[in-house]
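Budget justification, computational time. The allocation requested in the original proposal was used primarily to generate C-alpha cells for proteins on the priority list. As evidence of use, we reproduce two of the resulting records. The first is shown immediately below.
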Amino acid sequence: MKKLLFVFILFCFVLVTTACASESKETSGTDEKNWEPEKPIELVAPAGAGGGWDTTARMAAKVFNETGIIEQDIGVVNKPGGGGAVGWAYVAGHDASPYNLFVASPPIVLIPLNGQSEYGHEDFTPLANMIADYAAFAVAKDAKWDNLNELFEDMKKDPESITVVGTSSPGSMDHIQFVQIAKAAGVDISKIKYVSDQDGVGLTQLLNGSVDVFSTGVSETVEQVKAGTIKVLGVTAEERLEGEVLEDFPTAKEQGIDATFVNWRGFFGPPNMDENAIKYYEEKFKKLSESEEFAEIRKQYGWDEMYMNSEEYKTFLDKQKEEIKTLLDELNLSK
C-alpha cells in the first residue's frame, strides 16, 4: 500500500513539474517573441532642423504616431555636430537600449573613414533602411553649361578652374557624390576644387558667382528651379524621378555617364540591442514602408522606397564601406 502511495505521489509530482516547466517555457517564449516598448521612444536626428536626417526622422515619427503602427510616443531630438559624430556618440552611450534610435545615411560610413569620428556603422545595430534619395548638381540659371557633359569637359581641361560647393566636409557626402559621378565621366578627381559650406550659404555662393556648382540633395533644388534662379544639370538616380519639376531633371546615366549615387537613409539602434527588439523594429519599419501614408511622404520629397531588414542592411553597409574607402584612398582622404 505504501509502495502504491509513493508511486502515485511521484506520478503527481512529475505531472506538476512538467506542467510548470511547460508553462514557464511558454510564458518565457511569449515574452521573448512579443517584446514591445513600455515607454516613449527617442529618435535622434544627428543634425540640426530642416535637413535630410531631421525630415526623415520627423516624417517617420509622424506616421508611426498617427497610424498607431507604434503605439508608444516617439519624440525626435536633434543632436547636431561633427557631421553626425555628436549624435552617434550620444546614442552609443545608451548601450543595448531599445528606446534610443537614430537615423543615418552615407556619412556614417564616410565620416569614420576620413577620421572625423570614432564611431562607424559597425558600432551600432542596423534596424532597417527605408528610403533612397539622390544627389543633384546645380548651377546658376545663366551658367554656360546646360548638361553634365559640358561641365565635365571643362573640368577635364582644367579641373581647378571650377569650384564645387557642398554642405558637408571634404570626404563626406556632398563631396563624394560629385566625385563619384565626375570620376565615371573621366575627370581627374584628385584635382577637383571642392569647398565646404558648413554655414548653409552654398546656394547664396552659387547665385553670387563665388562658386560654380552646387552639389546637394534633389529636394533642396526644387523650389529654386521653380523660382528660375538655378538649373539642375543632372541627378544621380538610376532613372528619372517622378513628380512635378523632378521629372525634368536628367540623370547622369541618360547623359552617357555610367554611375549613380544613392543617398540611402535608415534607422539604427545602440550597440548590443536584444534580438527580439530588433525583430520588433524590423516589422514596424516594414509596415511603415508599406503604408499609404509614408508612400505619400516619399512622393512629396522625391524619395524612392528602399526597405532592407537588419541583416540585409548590415551586408549592404559593409559593401558600401569597401567601395567608399577605395574612392577616399584615391583622394588621399582616408585615415
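The second record produced under the same allocation is shown here.
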Amino acid sequence: MTSQANLLLLFSLLISATSTVFSQKRQTDKELEKALKEITSDFNGDVGIYVYNLKTNKEAAINADTIFPTASVIKVPILLGVFQKIINGELKYNEPLVYDAKRAYGGSGLMQFYKDSTQTDLRTSLALMMGYSDNTSSLWNQELAGGGEGINTLLESLNFQDTRVNSRTKGREDIWKRYGWGQTTPREMTDILVKIRRGEMFNSAASEEMYRLMTNSFYTDYALSEIPPYVQSASKQGMVDDSRSELVMVNAPSGDYAFYFTTKNIEDESWEYENEAWELSREISAFLWNYFEPELTWKPAEGTKELTTGIKY
C-alpha cells in the first residue's frame, strides 16, 4: 500500500471515529435522576426537567418529552428565526428600525417606554428580548422572523417536533388557549441551547452571537442565583401565573452542563420571591452545581435575598 493510500485510510478511520463519538447515544445518569425525583416529589404541580452534561454525554430526565408552556422561553426560537433571516440576507444584524408607539405591549421589558418614532436597530431589539425578556421587542422580532408560521417551519426543518410558537400564529388559536405564547418539551429546548453552544445552529458565527446574547440575563433571582457569579452562564426565563420555566447552560470548570426546568398547573401562583416553583428552581440549580462541581462548593452570600439597604427582591 502506498503512503498516499495509508494517509487516506487513516483519514477515513479518523472521520469514522469522530462520527461515532458525536452519534453516541446519551447515557442516563441514574444517580442524578434519582436525586432529582426526590427533590421534586412533593412539588404542588407538574414538573419537567432535562439535564445534559456535554462533557460526559450523560443525561437525567423527568417528564422530559412532555409538552409544557414556554412563556417567555419561546423567545429562544424567535431568536433562531431572526438569525435565519440574517444568514439568508433578508435582514442585517444592525438593521435600522423605527419604533411605533402602537407596538407597545405590557409586561416585562423596556421598549414599551420608547417614545414614538425612536430610532433603534435589530441588534438592540434582540438584546432587549434576551436580556430583559422584553415583550414589545419580542413580538416585533417574531414578526421580522416571518411570524409564528415562519419560525415553526424552521423548527420543523431542524427536527424539533414539539417546540412551536402559538401566539399570533394562524391555525394555532386553540393550542394557544392551552399553552400560551409557545410550547416545548424539556429535552427539545435543552437541545436547542446545546446546538447553539456547540456552534451547530446555522453556523459557528451565528451560534456564537446568539450565545453571547443569552449570557446577559437580567433575571438572576432564580436558577442563576445558585451559580457562582464568576462562572459564565447562558439562560432564558419564562413565567406566567401557573407556569415557571428556566433554560440554563453553565460553562462550569469541569465541563458545560445544560438544564431546562419547567412547571405547569402550579398551585402557588404568587409572584413573591418564595414562590414554590422559584424555590424549587433555585434548589435544583444549587444541587446541579454541587453535583457537577463537588470540589467547588458554593452558595450565595448571607443577605443576598435582603440587601443591607433593606431592599428586597
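A brief technical remark on that second record: The chain has two domains: 27-66+185-293, 71-182.
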